[in-house]
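REQUEST FORM: STRUCTURE PREDICTION
Request ID: SP-0412
Submitted by: Lab K.M.
Chain count: 1
Length (residues): 98
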Amino acid sequence: MARPEVTARSAARKVVADAALAATFTIAEFCRAHRISQSMYFKMRNLGLGPREMAVGSRRLISAEAARAWRKTRERAATASAGARTGREPLAGSARGK
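STATUS: Completed
RESULT:
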């Protein structure tokens, strides 16, 4: 009987699933669970758009509650941004602007 192969894709799905069930995330786990790069995480954090972090010794962790609040805030910001865009005139030369 052939054993099932573990692929990088299936291993990545397991890591994301495991991280989603965690009580706290490391920054790397948070990024994998939310499918953003670490560089994007640090850019957002520097702009004040990152989740709340807690210091545990020398580590920075993100609680599940902070991750949930961050997602809710980002969703609200995206909705507000989409609403603001709908009031704009179409760009000149676009298919809708002709």
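NOTES: The radius of gyration is 19 Å.
Reviewed by: T.R.
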